[in-house]
């Protein structure tokens, strides 16, 4: 019988960091966790969660992927989610809330955690769903300050299938045990849910699009989508490839909106191969 393998993991609990107020937002406390912090010289992978996600809701997938990549990792809960500052109930998210996260909140978090310019140029962003959209927006806003990006089931425009599924989620939240399940992961579960749900179901958001911003992305880009995704069609990642020619597409059979849960091994293999190829190219 083979000897058991022990993997060294960073098991420290989540911490929080305070981001100062600026002209566009108030002060924020952000929940975050480092992965593989002992790999001090390794590149950093930053994980951006879905519309109802948090540090805890990723479970162990970021750690597993970082182990496969031999990289450090940073997971954090965006404002309104997890243990980060909740959204005040009387404040609605703006239509450009994902742009604010990409251009203001994430850079401020990296500043607060002393992630310097050299580290950012070696950094990879890995985002899912709304986090995938934020990943694309960051890559477009900072085209020379990123090694590459992975967008998993991202949104670049609003589809009817997305709106219909988000409307169904509202019914489930109000009539099933979905609220109690989400409450385990968010300090203010109603703030988290309705912040996401209300903006996506608003009339103003129906015309939201980040397609034009995709033209500004210059870094290596992997876009992933499942064929059984009920929150978006293949038109999302096909559009990314049309606007950013360097994009590599991975389309997954028997996979829904969350490839890291539905097909983690296939997803990890695709990401490790993609990042490995571009890391070797950067050294040549």
Structure, explained:
The structure is a single chain. This protein is α/β, with parallel strands linked by helices and 284 residues long. The protein has one domain: Rossmann fold (3-Layer(aba) Sandwich), CATH 3.40.50. It contains 10 helices and 8 strands. It has an 8-stranded mixed beta sheet with strand order 1-2-4-3-5-6-7-8, sandwiched between helices. Strand 5, helix 4 and strand 6 form a beta-alpha-beta unit. Helix 2 packs across helix 4 and helix 5 packs antiparallel against helix 7. The longest helix is centred in the C-terminal third of the chain and has 20 residues. The chain is globular and about 50 Å long. The N terminus is likely disordered.
List keywords for this structure.
Rossmann fold, 284 residues, AB_hydrolase_sf, Alpha/beta hydrolase, AB_hydrolase_fold, alpha/beta, hydrolase activity, AB_hydrolase_1
Tell me, rounded to a whole number, the average pLDDT. Answer: 92
Helix percentage: 25-40%
Order of helices and strands: EEEHEHHEHEHHHEHEHH
Strand content: 15-25%
Helix count, per DSSP? 10
Which structural category fits the helices and strands? Answer: alpha/beta
How many beta strands in the DSSP annotation? 8
Q: Based on Cα principal axes, name the global outline.
A: globular
How many structural units, i.e. domains?
Answer: 1
InterPro entries: AB_hydrolase_1 (IPR000073), AB_hydrolase_fold (IPR029058), AB_hydrolase_sf (IPR050266)
Domain AB hydrolase-1: 46-270
Protein name: Alpha/beta hydrolase
GO molecular function: hydrolase activity
């Amino acid at each position: 019988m083979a000897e058991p393998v022990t993997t060294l993991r960073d098991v420290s609990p989540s911490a929080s960091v305070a981001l100062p107020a600026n002209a566009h937002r108030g002060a924020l406390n952000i929940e975050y966790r480092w992965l593989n912090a002992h790999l001090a010289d390794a590149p950093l992978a930053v994980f951006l969660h879905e519309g109802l996600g948090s540090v805890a809701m990723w479970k162990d997938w970021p750690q597993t992927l970082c182990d496969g990549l031999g990289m450090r990792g940073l997971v954090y809960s965006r404002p309104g989610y997890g243990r980060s500052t909740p959204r005040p109930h009387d404040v609605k998210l703006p239509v450009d809330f994902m742009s604010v996260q990409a251009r203001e909140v994430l850079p401020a978090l990296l500043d607060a955690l002393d992630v310097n310019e050299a580290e950012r140029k070696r950094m990879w962003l890995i985002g899912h769903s709304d986090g995938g959209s934020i990943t694309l927006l960051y890559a477009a806003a900072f085209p020379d300050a990123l090694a590459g990006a992975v967008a998993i089931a991202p949104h670049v425009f609003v589809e009817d299938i997305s709106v219909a599924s988000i409307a169904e989620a509202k019914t489930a939240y109000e009539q099933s045990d979905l609220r109690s399940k989400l409450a385990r992961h968010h300090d203010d579960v109603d703030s988290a849910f309705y912040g996401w749900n209300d903006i996506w179901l608003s009339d103003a958001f129906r015309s939201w699009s980040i397609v034009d911003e995709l033209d500004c992305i210059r870094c290596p880009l992997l876009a992933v989508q499942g064929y059984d995704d009920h929150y978006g069609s293949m038109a999302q990642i096909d559009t990314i490839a049309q606007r950013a020619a360097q994009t590599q597409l991975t389309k997954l059979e028997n996979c829904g909106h969350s490839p890291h849960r539905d097909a983690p091994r296939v997803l990890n293999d695709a990401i490790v191969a993609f990042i490995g190829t571009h890391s070797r190219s950067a050294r040549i």
